[in-house]
């Protein structure tokens, strides 16, 4: 009897929650059949989490992937449905349908020849796009698929073995290490690098040095301003076989 009462109670509770969400949904003009796709950063909230979109909006996760367990600062492509607006200081309460993790790393430092070798400096097939959002430098690029199980490595480094100009930019290098493990196939991917791990005081931009497969070096200027309108390609943006 207790089991039956418990089941009935849980069923009623589920219906009540659904009606509550639907009511909020109707008032704010949202449909449970609609969904949004956005770049976001995970913000840990004790045993749960919220999402900060690149637009600056904050989403409270009220349904769906409630038990998602990841580190604070993980970058994701978020697939979500808005249930209502202005929820306890958050712009929206949402149902998370799916989270696609993006390779997320800190900016690192080359302080010795050993560091220089560790990060590698292999040629990258192409760098397709760079922009700053949510205190991360995002890079879309094309890389070689490995011929064996060992993953390739991409890094964003501040090379302290080189002297950089004293101007309004910070000089970084986008490094690629194939570990001599290349195939003839290529794929696209994305990585986000946390800019809070370096000193940007007085800087207005970033100059990124990278090298192509012909050994030619190029520098890309990236302004230090938030951009939140970039096109999302889930298949190429989500975490690939890279470290």
TrEMBL record:
Alphabetically ordered keywords of this record: Signal
Record InterPro entries: NigD-like_C_dom_sf, NigD-like_N_sf, NigD-like_OB_dom, NigD_C
Leader peptide range in chain numbering: 1-25
KW Signal (keyword) present: yes
Pfam families for this protein: NigD_C, NigD_N
Record carries keyword Signal: yes
Domain of life of the native organism: Bacteria
PROSITE patterns named among the record's database cross-references: PROKAR_LIPOPROTEIN (PS51257)
Domain spans labelled NigD-like C-terminal: 108-222
Domain NigD-like N-terminal OB: 39-102
Protein name: NigD-like C-terminal beta sandwich domain-containing protein
